[in-house]
């Protein structure tokens, strides 16, 4: 079993889509593996989809199972500070998440996205760029498909959205490129250390990245790592903007690529998102012409800001409620 040598007893914490993906992945690796699932909900989603060989404990913790395990795979929704997990960790039990299992199994290039806002848009956009270039791409993680389920289809490129929760239990994810889009207060109930602790979790995305991409208009996203770096922003450096005859263009190192007003996505924040996506697409070897075609075509996720009509130079958009206050304030 790649990356799981000596692991025979695994306890999965939390069921649902992610938990089921972990169970199925482990059984694909070793059909005889001893797998148990703990979920503190009385009737967790997916309980009726577990194979008969997998034991399930609902509504409470089972410390005997935890302490006897070779590995615990914790749902992103379960904080590592949870007393039961702390007890297991102090006893020497390895605790990982589904993304760490993905990292140990994947053998194709991966790019990943984190940040307080815009993750899903950039993740989807890079996926559309890859599809436009004819690449067999898998898009998922914190959006859409569970990362481990995507391995079944043997994609040639993976694009992952990663939350701070997922990154807490990820230690060996090797990435062609990673981007940290922005930082604002979110999930503060999970992080007693405040914004600094929250950001430290997100910075873990860069630990094994060949290229680190940060937002130079939000310097809290710049990592202190010994790896290649580039950035995106609204000036003319690296992935940025240049002005030609009064019109803004997306540019790379001053080389104009396409007019910013031809991006199908609406809003100034989506210009930044487009630049971040271009940086990842370039790192993944996606043809720039294909990336620009995707930018002209892709209108975004159905529940996000979308263009309704472009008439006489005026772009009319529909903007649903956002999930965070900083997202609501963005132009």
Task: Describe the protein.
This protein has 331 residues and is α/β, with parallel strands linked by helices. It has two domains: 9-96, NAD(P)-binding Rossmann-like Domain (Rossmann fold, 3-Layer(aba) Sandwich), CATH 3.40.50; 102-297, Mur-like, catalytic domain (UDP-N-acetylmuramoyl-L-alanine:D-glutamate ligase), CATH 3.40.1190. The chain contains eleven helices and 16 strands. The protein has helices spanning 16-29, 63-68, 83-90, 98-105, 119-132, 147-150, 164-168, 194-203, 268-283, 288-297, 325-329, and strands at residues 9-13, 34-39, 55-58, 71-74, 94-96, 110-114, 137-141, 157-161, 177-180, 211-215, 228-232, 239-244, 247-252, 255-259, 306-311, 314-318. The strands form four sheets. It has a six-stranded parallel sheet with strand order 7-8-6-9-10-11. This is UDP-N-acetylmuramoylalanine-D-glutamate ligase. The chain crosses the membrane at residues 6-27. It is an enzyme of class 6 (ligase). InterPro entries: Mur-like_cat_sf (IPR036565), Mur_ligase_cen (IPR013221), MurD (IPR005762).
């Amino acid at each position: 079993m790649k990356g799981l040598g000596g692991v025979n007893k695994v306890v999965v914490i939390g069921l649902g889509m992610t938990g089921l993906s972990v169970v199925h992945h482990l059984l694909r690796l070793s059909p005889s593996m001893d797998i148990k699932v703990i979920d503190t909900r009385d009737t967790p989603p997916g309980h009726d989809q577990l194979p008969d060989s997998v034991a399930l404990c609902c509504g409470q913790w089972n410390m005997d199972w935890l302490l006897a395990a070779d590995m615990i795979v914790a749902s992103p929704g379960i904080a590592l500070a949870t007393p039961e997990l702390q007890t297991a960790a102090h006893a020497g039990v390895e605790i990982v998440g589904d993304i760490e299992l993905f990292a140990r199994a994947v053998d194709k290039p991966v790019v990943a996205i984190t940040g307080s806002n815009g993750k899903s848009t950039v993740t989807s956009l890079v996926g559309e760029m890859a599809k436009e270039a004819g690449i067999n791409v898998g898009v998922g993680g914190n959006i859409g498909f569970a990362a481990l389920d995507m391995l079944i289809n043997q994609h040639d490129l993976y694009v992952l959205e990663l939350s701070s929760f997922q990154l807490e239990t990820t230690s060996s994810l090797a990435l062609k490129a990673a981007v940290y889009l922005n930082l604002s207060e979110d999930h503060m109930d999970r992080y007693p250390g405040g914004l600094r602790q929250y950001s430290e979790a997100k910075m873990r995305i860069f630990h094994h990245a060949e290229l680190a991409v940060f937002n130079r208009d939000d310097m809290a996203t710049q990592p202190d790592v010994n790896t290649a770096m580039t950035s995106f922003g609204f000036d003319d450096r690296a992935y940025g903007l240049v002005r030609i005859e009064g019109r803004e263009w997306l540019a790379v190192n001053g080389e104009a690529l396409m007019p910013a007003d031809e991006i199908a996505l609406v809003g100034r924040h989506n210009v930044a998102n487009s630049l971040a996506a271009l940086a990842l697409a370039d790192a993944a070897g996606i043809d720039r012409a294909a990336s620009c075609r995707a930018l002209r075509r892709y209108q975004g996720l159905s529940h996000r800001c979308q263009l309704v009509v472009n008439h006489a130079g005026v772009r009319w958009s529909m903007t649903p409620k956002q999930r965070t206050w900083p997202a609501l304030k963005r132009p």
